[in-house]
Amino acid sequence: MKKLELEPSKENIISTLKEDLFCRNEDLFRFAQLCDLQEDSCAISLNGKWGSGKTFFVRQLQYLMNACNDQSNLLEESEKEEIKSYFKDFNSGDQPNLGLKKEIVYYYDAWSNDNDVDPILSLIYQIAIESKKKYKFKHFPNVLPILSSIIAIIDFITGRNISNVVNAIENGLKEGKNDLDIIKDQKDLQNEISNFFDKLIDNNGDRLIIIIDELDRCRPDFAVKLLERVKHYFLNDRITFVFAINPKQLQYTIKKFYGEEFDASRYLDRFFDLRILLPKADLTLLYKNLQLDNSTYYERMQNLVISYFHFELREILRFYKSSKIAAGEFVHNTRKNAGISLASTFGLTAVVPILIGLYMTDLNGYEAFINGENSEPFISILGTDDVLPYYSSRLLDDNETFEKSDNNKKCVDLKGKLQQFYDAVFNSKRKERSEETRIGKFFVTDKVKDRILKSVTLISAINDYDI
């Protein structure tokens, strides 16, 4: 079974740039130009919902800008030329390196580091690690060893002798001061950090871009400290910060720290000079690769459920995988569905994708649905148009029709017939499991509900794991 969700590995990043899988290459290039044109210290928020592809976008940005910096060793020369070739159509005048400056770009996953004691020291430590230098570090749970290691890195890279700072810290410990007091006492630390970045930029490029991702997932104290200390420690006209965030969630995080009445939106305005909305991905090519082309009724239902729940990129991949396992092969494989009632086949085709979508987004709604208390998703998705004509026509009795006509047939409402089917499956008052409820050509017993719910578990004979 393949893992459909793309990890931001070098291979996947280069591959998606080549294919322009999310139709974002031009957006990516324009964002790189925006970063390139900053002349002062700048903080940009790249805003998008969880699962919208922010991480992949900023990692692609990192690779694009490193491809245009001949001092970067993140990529081989052949990889740099390959990546640049994917953006040549956006390079007016055929300028060298796509017309972009030599930017130094570092990526920092705040969430994976939020167990660190101090966010700024953690960030500097991570940048030093990514600088491709070879260091040996000892990790301890208190602040001093982390700080000492980072100072040692700064000392090594800049060539400055700042051992007196380390000595002052060690002497402070002997005098009974706690770790945080000692850090606050080091007035030279901010200058040393500034010197470190100056040296880094002078040696390797024109500007430093630091990407901070997943801040909205961090502990509230870690997120707030990182935001507030960035302004103090990175007062450099040649540094740009890009924060890839879900702004709504980050506001919740800030309120957890300062209180529910705190104006988190205005608070964020203090830190972000520009707020950029991540363009929505064009999923046409992705759908084509997944074969979600409406060639079967089940694929049509998958697309309808994706639209109904407004799934983001990551959710689409998760939903597709689960729904494909659940019944994707069964519903159009005559050998697998031989002997299964028409009502069960309709349930597997039309109901299973909806239940998987509900289970992903709303557990209470899922429970209400299977308990006969929430038919709304089923009626809304199938009742607005004749999306499954083969099945909807079989909801009718011989004397019924969905269209007004001059014959003697009774005109009925599609939504009403769908409600009858839903009630027969999930809200039935049958006394015996084998007792049938007839709706048009469908004969519904308790086995229909059993098959639907068993399919959704993803561990039944109906399921197909060869995806």
Overview of this protein structure:
The chain has about 475 residues and is of the alpha/beta class. The protein is built from 22 helices and nine strands. The strands form three sheets. It has a five-stranded parallel β-sheet with strand order 2-3-4-1-5, sandwiched between helices. Strands 6-7 form a two-stranded parallel sheet. Helix 14 (about 295-310) packs antiparallel against helix 15 (about 315-330). The longest helix has 20 residues, at about 340-360. Mean pLDDT is about 80; it is low at about 130-145, about 155-165 and about 180-185.
Summarize the model shown.
With 467 residues, the protein is α/β, with parallel strands linked by helices. It has helices at residues 10-19, 25-36, 54-67, 77-85, 119-130, 143-158, 163-174, 179-185, 188-204, 220-233, 247-258, 264-269, 284-290, 297-308, 313-328, 334-337, 342-361, 363-370, 376-383, 389-392, 414-426, 446-456; strands at residues 42-47, 103-109, 207-213, 239-245, 274-277, 400-401, 410-411, 437-439, 442-444.
Features:
467 residues; alpha/beta; two-stranded parallel ribbon; elongated
* Rg, Å, rounded: 29 Å
The tally of beta strands, per DSSP, is 9
The average pLDDT is 82
Low-confidence stretches: 132-147, 153-166, 182-187
Specify the overall morphology: elongated
* Main sheet overview: 5 strands, parallel
Report the portion of residues in β strands: 5-15%
What is the tally of helical segments?
Answer: 22
**Strands side by side in the biggest sheet:** 2-3-4-1-5
**Helical content band:** 40-55%
- C-alpha end-to-end distance: 5 Å
Structural class: alpha/beta
